[in-house]
Amino acid sequence: MYHRGISVVLLLVACFCITNGVYGLNITDCGTSDNVTIHEILVSYCEDVELCPLIRGNTTILTIRFEVASVVKNLTAVVYGTLGDGDLFLNFPYKHRDACKEESGLKCPLMPGKIHTYRASIEILKLYPKLKSVVKFELRGERKKNLICILVPTRIVDM
């Protein structure tokens, strides 16, 4: 009986993971370009939770694996967040805006036919209030056009 219960739970978890696809538990698309195929999105500390915890005093790592259908000469990272359950997005002061430099792992131009891995390190300061927030993360190409746009439901917490 015990083993059957574990088997059922493992089967449900496997089905849940498959149906969630590349976006993870509650990460949703908010306007990714048709010229981009996202293969995987990972957020540190965000496995099997409804709201991704952003731990004050720590750095959250966002990793996006994707392909482009045409050459991308430059990328700009833009981060927004809501305060609480509001729907007004406020600009977040993200210091690594040039996604082709710094520690992102990308080298522009990005070429089609290759899987690219972008990595963002987002510092969660201790002075941030503990609250729920939806984080909107965009990678913009030429003419500020969204190539990737995702929404991540989060909560700012202490360790």
Indicate the topology.
Blueprint: H1 2-20, E1 28-29, E2 36-43, E3 52-55, E4 59-68, E5 76-81, E6 90-91, E7 116-123, E8 132-140, E9 146-157
Parallel strand pairs: 3-9
Antiparallel strand pairs: 1-9, 2-4, 4-7, 5-6, 5-8, 8-9
Description:
A hairpin with a 5-residue loop joins β8 and β9. The strands form two sheets. Strands 1, 3, 5, 6, 8 and 9 form a six-stranded mixed β-sheet that branches. The protein has a three-stranded antiparallel β-sheet with strand order 2-4-7, with no helix packed on it. It has one helix and nine strands. It is globular and about 40 Å long. With 159 residues, the protein is mainly β. It has a single domain, classed as Immunoglobulin-like (Sandwich).
List keywords for this structure.
38% strand, signal, globular, three-stranded antiparallel β-sheet, six-stranded mixed β-sheet, 9 strands, 1 helix, mainly beta, 159 residues, Immunoglobulin-like
Biggest sheet layout = 6 strands, mixed
How much helical structure, as a percent, in the residues?
10-25%
Could you give the distance between the termini? Answer: 37 Å
Structure summary, number of beta strands: 9
- Count of the separate structural domains: 1
Mean pLDDT: 85
The CATH topology comes to Immunoglobulin-like
Classified by CATH, the class is Mainly Beta
Rough shape?
globular
Structural class: mainly beta
Give the low-pLDDT segments: 1-22
CATH architectural type: Sandwich
Write down the Rg.
17 Å
What is the multimeric organization of the chains shown? single chain
